[in-house]
Design brief:
The complex is a heterodimer of chains A (about 400) and B (about 70). Helices cover about 50% and strands about 10% of the residues of chain A. Chain A is an alpha/beta fold. Among the domains of chain A are: about 75-100 and about 145-325, Rossmann fold, CATH 3.40.50.300; about 335-390, no CATH class. The chains are: A alpha/beta (about 400), B mainly alpha (about 70).
Chain lengths: ~400, ~70
């Protein structure tokens, strides 16, 4: 039989026969992945009369053949995150541009990245091939307009970064995170799936299963979140990821993030991104409202303690990396030049008010800036002026 | 099941057949339509068999979180 063609079909689930993976397909035609999450789209698609009956399974060989016949879009960017940190807002904004195909946490890819649990005998090169074939099938253009493929992963997939890097060595990536207390509060309201005990599988360095059983849920969440943040910080240093703090959203998407992903945006596209950012990412019918103050009010003392003990050290490391990459006075100056109103306001202030206003504005914009950065910049500017006058 | 597997491959390779099945307004209409379309292609399938497959698909989807 000649190679099968899967135009319009989507691999939505892995299945296992002993330790051999295969994929299950459903038909979506040219329907886009229009929901905030891949799984939501699949949930609706699987209930159509056609997909209720016509679904089929193939071994991975069929996926490999389809990859050779129709490679799909090459990934243009990967999004990792700490959970509840604004990553869905980023995917919603990117998905607002017809030229982008955005996959938000496809469960089938999460399972494939963790294939070592079911297929420990497979070599890492073999598993990287599996990941490439699956991404290729998921990344088939749907409307015909798409040129760029972006994938947001489940938070736990940052642990699978080496496999993904082997499969896609040159794809730029970001890690999105937020103040640890706010992440803890959000997960206490409704816990992300990867924080349920057992979901992380055996990848819990320093955490014995026996300890986990008796561990308080909040401590467990804080430790896992800390491990995700720590792992991300390590790979940002070694593999050129871009740290993105929640406070930098949404403006960073049409600024540094677009540049990091190599996207040239038109004025019209920036306007579309801004429109998408005005709505709640997970409930797109509601307008976005900041919940930072509410989350801080809700934080209990144990939550703050756990966040401080297990997540905050890694949050600080991420901030340090972000600062080294894009913070300090140069970043502030670049941002200030795009904000003429603030520029005018700062010009009329005395030194102390200037420093305080600038630091507050930088903090609100998510720019890592310290008093010392400003003082050094002022001293340098004065020295330069003195040289010129001489 | 062998007959249904043969039918699946036929659907995959025959876009016109696939589109005809996609036009079914609801599941009962689809289940009523399939046996005749399959027979035209030399495949024998009963509506009862198809209903069992739909149930198995539903069960498999509902149990998706348990099959790590």
């Amino acid at each position: 039989m000649s190679a099968l063609r899967f135009d319009g079909w989507v691999p939505f689930r892995l299945y296992w026969q002993e330790s051999e993976p295969g994929v299950e397909w459903l038909y979506m035609g040219s329907h886009p992945f229009g929901d905030p999450f891949f799984e939501t789209t699949i949930y609706f698609e699987i209930q159509t009369p056609f997909n209720s009956l016509i679904r089929f399974r193939t071994p991975l060989a069929a996926l490999a053949e389809w990859h050779a016949a129709s490679p799909g879009l090459e990934p243009a960017g990967f999004i990792f995150h700490l959970s509840r940190s604004g990553s869905t807002l980023i995917t919603r904004m990117l998905a607002a541009l017809p030229r982008n195909l955005v996959l938000s946490e496809p469960g089938v890819l999460d399972r494939m990245l963790r294939s070592h649990e079911r297929a420990p005998q497979a070599s890492v090169e073999q598993r990287a091939d599996w990941v490439r074939w699956l991404v290729s099938a998921l990344g088939q253009p749907r409307t015909g307009l798409e040129q760029c493929l972006f994938i947001k992963f489940d938070p736990r997939n940052v642990l699978d970064f080496p496999l993904l890097r082997l499969a896609f060595p040159h794809v730029p990536w970001i890690f999105v995170y937020r103040d640890p207390v706010e992440v803890m509060v959000s997960n206490a309201r409704s816990s992300a799936r990867f924080l349920a005990k057992g979901m992380m599988g055996p990848d819990l360095p320093g955490l014995e299963p026996r300890l986990v059983e008796d561990m308080d849920d909040q401590e467990y969440s804080a430790r896992v979140l800390g491990m995700v943040a720590q792992t991300a910080a390590r790979y940002i240093e070694s593999a050129q990821g871009m740290p993105v703090e929640y406070r930098q959203l949404p403006a960073i998407v049409w600024g540094d993030l677009a540049r990091h992903f190599g996207i040239q945006l038109t004025a019209e596209e920036i306007e579309r991104l801004q429109q998408a950012a005005a709505f709640d990412a997970k409930e797109p019918n509601r307008r976005f409202e900041s919940d930072t103050a509410a989350k801080n009010r809700e934080a209990t003392e144990p939550m703050r303690r756990m966040a401080g003990e297990w997540i905050a050290p890694h949050y600080r490391k991420l901030e340090e990396l972000r600062r080294a990459r894009s913070g300090g006075f140069p970043a502030f100056r670049g941002w200030l030049l795009d904000n003429p109103q603030l520029f005018d306001r700062l010009r009329g202030l005395d030194r102390e008010s200037f420093l305080q206003t600038a630091l507050q504005a930088a903090s609100q914009a998510g720019i890592a800036l310290e008093r010392g950065d400003l003082e050094s910049a002022i001293a340098e500017a004065r020295a330069e002026l003195a040289r010129r006058l001489v | 099941m062998a007959a249904f597997s043969a039918f699946l491959v036929t659907v995959l390779n025959d876009a016109a057949l696939r589109d005809e099945l996609l036009e079914a307004p609801d599941l009962p209409a689809l289940l009523a339509r399939v046996p005749a379309l399959a027979r035209e292609r030399g495949i024998e399938l009963s509506e009862e068999e198809l209903r069992e497959i739909v149930n198995a698909n539903r069960r498999s989807w509902l149990e998706r979180w348990t099959d790590r």
